[in-house]
Structures are given as C-alpha cells and as structure tokens.
Amino acid sequence: MSTTVEVPVANPVVPARRTRFLANLWKVLRRKPSRMVGAFIVALFVALGIIGPWLYPENLPKSADLLAGPSLSHLLGTDFEGADVLAELIVGSRYVLTAAAVAALVTVVVGVAVGLYAGYRRGRPDSALMRITDFVLTIPGFPLLLVLTTVWKFESALQMGLVLGLTGWGGLARSVRSQTLSLRERGFVEAARGLGLSTPHVVTRELLPNIAPYVAMNLLIGVTTFIYSQVGLFYLGVLPYNSTNWGVMIQLAVNNGVTQTGAGLSYLMAPLIAILLLTLGVVLLVDAMDEVFNPRLRED
Amino acid sequence: MRKPVVAVLTAAGTLATVLAAAGCTDSSSADGGVFTTIDGNHPINVNAPINPYNQASNTFVGYNTMQLGWAKNSKTDPNAFYPGLAKSWTETPDHLKLTVKLQPKAKWSDGKDVTAEDVKTSAAMSFTQGGGAFAVSPGAAGGLGDIKVVDSKTIEFDQAAGSANNSFLRNILSMNVIPKSVYGPQMPADIWDTIKTATDPKAAKADQTKAQNTITSLGKKLVDFGPKKDVSAGPFVLQRVNPGEAVLKKNTYFFDADKIGPKQVVLKNYSGNEQIWNYLIAGQLDAAPYTSTPTNVVKKIVGHKGNGTVKGFSPVAASLAFNQSYKPLDNVHVRRALAYLIDRKLTTKIGEAESGTASQTTTGLVGDAANAWLGADGVNKLNPYAHDTAKAEKELKTAGLTKSGKTWMYKGKPFTLNIQAPTGFSDWIAGSKSISSQLTDFGIASSVKTSADYATYLSEIAEGKYQVGFWLTALGPSTYNAYARLYGPSNGWTQFGAQVKHSAAGKDGNWMGGTETANVPGLGTVNPGDLTNQLSQADEAKQKELVGKLARYSNDQLPAIQIWDYVNVQFTNTTRFTNFPKDDSDVLRLSPGVWMQLGYIKKK
C-alpha cells in the first residue's frame, strides 16, 4: 500500500492578490482615457529615468549652434554649449524621479507608521509622537533645505530623497492619525479586538487597508511636491552643478539671457514642460489609484 | 583702483544679491539732468553705513567718495594716475618718499576745507583695515613707514624701511579720503603711536602684538561706524537711499563743480546680472560698468534706441589653475597635455564670447600687456599651445599615462579631473563645462563642480580642496601683482620686506603646490617667486628682463593655463547725455562719477 504525501505548496495568496491588484488597476485605468494618459506619462518618465543614462553614457550629442531652437537633429534645441536639450532632459530624469520616489517612500513609511501607531495606541505614545510631528510640521521645509545645502551637497538622489522625506512626513502622519482614531471605533475593528486578534494584525490587516487610498494619493501628490522642491534648490544654484539637472537647466537658461531675448527658449521650456507633464501624469494617475484602493468608488 | 575683491567680482561678471525695487527720482533736478546708472562695486544696501571702508557702504567711488588720484587704465604703468583730491604729487626715483599737494579749492560738502589732516586720518583708518601699504605687520613690503603733514594742503608719505616697492604710490593715491571732523573723534588720540608700535620691527614682541590687537578691534568698530549725514568731498553727496536706488545730488562745494553736468545721480539697485540687463534693455541706464553679458543679450541691449557699447583693455585673464598636490597634475607633461587639449577659442566662445578673447598663450600677462613688455617677437617665441590632440597624447604618454580603450589611465586607474567654479559665475561655469566636455571626449573623465559662492570658493581652494579651478590671473598693470597671482602666497611665496620666503605645499595658503624651482630650457634653474618679488622693487628696464623670464617660465611650467583675456565692455546710452569716453579710453575702468570730474558726460 502506498501512501500519497501531499507536498505543501507555497501560499498562493500574495501572487493572487498582486494579480488581482494589477487586473483592477488595468480595469480602472481603461475606464477613463485621462487615466491612461496619466499612466502613459508616468511610465514614460520612469522608463526614461531607467534607460536615460545608458542611452548617453558619455558626452551628449552636440552642435556648433549654441542656444539653437528645435530642429530635426536636435528636437528640443541646444543649450549654451550646443549640447542636445532632449538628451539632457532624458539623462536628468533619473535624479529627479529617484529623489522624488525615495522622498515619497520615506514620507509614507514614517508618516503612516507614526500616524497609525499614535492613533491606535492613543495615550502617552500618541502625545509624544504628535509633539514630534508638530515639531516637524513647524519646520519650514524649503528654508531648512537651503540651510542644509551649506553642509550637505546632495550629490546622490538618495540623499536628496531621504532629506526631503524626513522633513515632509508630518502632514501625512497627522492625517493618518485622524483616520485611525475614527476607524478604531468602528465595529469591524472592535470585533477584531474582541476576537483577541493581535495589535499588529489589527493594524496591518484591518486599519491599514482602509487608509491605503488616502496614503496612495498622498504618495503621488507628495512626488510632485518633492519634484518642485529639488528642482527649486538646484535652480537657486545652492547645489552642485550638473548640466543635466532640470533645475540647473532652468538656471543656466536664465543666466544665458533666454528670458531677456527669447533665444534658446526651448532650453528654458523643456525642463519646465517636463515638470508640468510629470505633475499632470501624477494627478491623472491619482484619480485611478483612488478608485483602485477605494472599492466604494468603483463603477462596476 | 577698485578694491581687489571688487575688481575680482566685476571682472568675473558676478554681482552680489540685494533686492531691487523701482524708485522715484527728483524731477526738480531735470535742470542738469538725472544720470542713471548702477555702481559696479556693490549693490545698494539701505542699512549700510555711509562709510567708504565698509564693504556694503552707501558711498560710491567717484561720486561721493574721493581718492587722491584716479588710476588710468594703462597696460604697463601702475603709477599712471589722473588727479583726484591730489592736485599733484612727486615721488623720489627710489619710491621711498611721496609728496602730495591737495587741490587748493577742495572742500567737504559741509563747507570745511579738505586738508592734509583729513588725509592723515584716512591713512589711520586704512591701517585699521590693513592691506597694501597699510598692512599692520612689521616689515610688510611697501608699507607706509611715516606720514608727515607739511602744511594744510601738503602731506608727505615715507615708505617703511627695508623695501622700495614700486606700487607704493599706487597704494597711497588709491586711498579713500574721509573727513577728520567726522572720523577723527572715533579714533583714540594715540592711534599713530599704536600704529608705529604695531609696524615697528624693532618693537618688543609683546608690545607689537598688543598694538596689533588694538588696531584690529578698532578696525572692527570703525568699519561699522557711519555718520547720519553724508560729508562728501566728491562731485555728489548722498541725498537718500531706498531699497531700489540711491539718489545723490550735486555737491556745490566740489572743487571742480563747473565740470559736473548732471544735477543728480541715481544708482539703481540690482540682484544680479539679469537685473542690469533688464535695465539696459529698457533703456533706463545712461551707463553701466562691465557686466558679464551673453551675446544674445548684448544684441538686445544695443537694439534699444541710444544704447551702445564702449570697449577697452582689461588687465585680467581667466585661467585654469592646478593644485599640483593632486597627482598626476604635478607632472608638467600632464599640464602641457591639458594645455594642448583645451580649445581656448571654443571655450571662450561658450564662456565669454562678448567680453573675452581667447588667450594667445600662457604668459602670466594678458595679451596686450605681454606684447607691450615682450614685444610681438617675444610672445611668438613662446609655445602657443594650439589645440592639438596628437601632441596632448604624446605628452600624456611621456608622463607615463596609458590608454585603456578610450580612457586614459594613471597608475591603473582612470585619470579623472574635476573642474571647480563658484556658483553665480555663469561664464566660468559655462567655460568649465566646455572644457569638461572636451576632456571627456578625449578620454579624460571630467566633470564640473560648483561651490556655494565666491567666498566659499576662495576659502576652499586655499584649503586645497579642488584639483583644478578657475583663477583670475594677470591682474595688471602692476607686473608684480600679475605674477603674484601665480607665484605669490597661493603658490607658497610670501614677501617680507625685500625678501621672499617659500612655504611647502599645503602650508601658509600654498594650495597650488608648484615646485620652488624648475629648470627651463634657455633659462636654467629658475625660482619664479624670487623673480616676482624682484618685480616689486624693479625699474622699468629690470622689469622687462624679469617679465621675459617669468613669461617663459609660466609658458613652460604652466602652473595655470590662461583661457581667455577679459575685454572691458561697458554700455552707454546717448539719448539723454553725450560725451562719453570712447573705445580704449584710459578712463574706462573708472566710474562715470570720475568721468564727470574729468569733463566727460554732458546733458544733451
């Protein structure tokens, strides 16, 4: 007689969830063309950020025409050195996106952790964490960054993202705490507690999914804020020079009299339009993410 | 002469930041006309004192601040001056004694006479701020040893024993003169005894230190002092200041008031070059001093009715200087390779197209000055370092560098070069970027780094933090000043009286780290710091000989590579005023206030 032993299979829950999420996302995106446009823009910039520096590993394509307008050989014209503006834009996208993504991640991780814990535990931990949050909120972000540039040069996008994130999580923490305070009194949370489920379980399985839409929106909107901040710092010239950085491109366009004469306008406009497009893409995507995370908004 | 820091800033086309705002002018001054310009030395600062020794200051050289003389824009003679508050002067051939006679009719705007006592008070004030002939250190080269009031309009200056510096006259005549009636009460009665103790090499060390400390602390107090009301010996006196502009009215007590056309001068505030361009494009300025301006903006400016440019000689060059402590930059063949690699014409086109010309070669002097001292033949004998990648390759191989694929390697690692420039110096940054691209194309991985501001740049370059950086050289017309940029304290040589001492790389401000001597074909072993020091004491014939050697040394050893010579490009508008100085005038580096004193600028 033979005995059949069943080999345990890996927990299929996670892949299934991922598949379901992607399927939902695709369905939600397709529902409105604007969402597809948003997703396309964001995907395009992400792709440029990944492959950009590989496309131009050494010097960028150059022309003898300085500050030239768009042409077939230089679709977005050239800069003060005759370098191709489109190539600069592509190469520069990695720093901008990486810094923004890291900053958003730090904001979400810290903001959600602090907000959830404070709101759920209440009492002294809540008071202590909220005082810290209030302190972070009272720090004027951009002026602080200006001061930090005197000691920290942010040559790595990770550094930039980390600092932006660590100075920008206060608002999210406050909001998440408010949401948590409201949710923890709801029946399903009380039921979970009544069943004796552990605090980590209640927080991660009951509370977190319910604040996820809010967090997702904050994550994306935070990305746009962080893009503005870092580009602003480079534009002000307080950070080291990098000819492909979008903020530096704007600064150098201004320094080369583009605003006075209009010559080389595409050099000035290219990074500005890139920022605008990226922001537009993110905003359009937020609409989709909202529906993905919030089943009540679904139309089917 | 402008203060060095101001000259540096002006030459590099970078201007400090202050908010600018529109302001109103006094229409009642329409009589002689309102002359509108900007002050090239500094923007307007409402809170600054009316004190010419304060860096921000609401005093403006040539308008309400007078010097004994006004330096001519000479290619070779640092002691060529127009009379200012001094009507005339005589200097002994050995430069040891200078006697100055003041303008007999010179008066302050409060009606009091300008006297020799005012000049003596100004000298005391200069000692509290230090530098030049007024360095508070015993045995300082070219220092003021004694000052004697001969009569109310005559004063005598003696150079301190130990050296016969040929810049003594220039340093004394460039002194800002302040009224004793205002500044005298701020100074202790025994100030000259304290100065004497501080500068006397024979004084006891403890007394000397105490006196120096007293002067330093007094200097800090005096530099912040400012009278409530301007007391000016110049053609104008400060009427009011607001965040947008400073308004000066004609000083009726000025000794040459008849020559002064405008009844009022308005000095507009600015936050940077862009603001000055905007004023010029709108035709608001009657004149603007040197401002680094890209070609497209120059075209736009001169397109406005009445606007035009006046161009002249500038004794300043922008160079790429090496810190030879970073290997392999200590190898002369590597420096020569870089000189061959950098296309100076292309770099100048990108960095300083309008206000610069590509340097002919590296001599330590700007092209015009080099030609004047060495003759065209002398310059042509030097290596021009024309753009030549084959020669660069040969030099790098001689230096022991190898090639791996496209990349040049030094001791098994890629040879990389970071070029440093200060933020805000758009011409230097653009030039650096061009050089960086050229080097990268050749296989030397190069990048541009920027420093937060010029002050940080200077302090960090002095600390030896940069491999290569832009550096102003050839600061003439004094040949000593020009070569001291290459073979002065930043390269280890410090003057003590008539002697010179060399410090090792990394010590006493020596960041360039060149060797103390080098063997130059045809010259033998040369100590460039020693030759430079001799320049400060030499007569014209001797200077010619020394410049010949130093130019050859600089061309052979390349402590820095000259990239472009600046051209002094100024803007004028002839809609409201006429009779501006012409191209190549020797007054071009002076302010329009001085032009007016010399009879220029009349209402149309």
From TrEMBL, chain A:
Transmembrane spans: 36-56, 95-120, 132-152, 158-176, 215-236, 265-286
* Residue ranges annotated for the ABC transmembrane type-1 domain, each copy included: 93-286
Q: Specify the domain of life of the species encoding this protein.
A: Bacteria
The topology of this chain with respect to the membrane is: Multi-pass membrane protein
| UniProt xrefs under SUPFAM superfamilies | MetI-like
Q: Which Pfam families match?
A: BPD_transp_1, OppC_N
Task: Recite the UniProt keywords alphabetically.
Answer: Cell membrane, Membrane, Transmembrane, Transmembrane helix, Transport
PROSITE patterns linked? ABC_TM1
Q: Which GO terms describe its cellular component?
A: plasma membrane
BP GO annotations: transmembrane transport
Q: Where in the cell is it found?
A: Cell membrane
Name the protein family.
Answer: Belongs to the binding-protein-dependent transport system permease family.
| Protein name, entry field | Peptide ABC transporter permease
Q: What species is given as this protein's source?
A: Actinocatenispora rupis
Automatic annotation (TrEMBL), chain B:
Is-annotated flag, keyword Thylakoid? no
Keywords, ordered alphabetically = Signal, Transport
Q: Name one GO biological process term.
A: peptide transport
Q: Which GO terms describe its molecular function?
A: peptide transmembrane transporter activity
Q: Domain named Solute-binding protein family: which ranges? A: 81-490
The record's section on SUPFAM superfamilies has: Periplasmic binding protein-like II (SSF53850)
KW Transport (keyword) present: yes
Q: PANTHER family in the record, alphabetically?
A: PERIPLASMIC BINDING COMPONENT OF ABC TRANSPORTER (PTHR30290), PERIPLASMIC OLIGOPEPTIDE-BINDING PROTEIN-RELATED (PTHR30290:SF10)
Q: What is this protein called?
A: Solute-binding protein family 5 domain-containing protein
Taxonomic lineage from the root: Bacteria, Bacillati, Actinomycetota, Actinomycetes, Micromonosporales
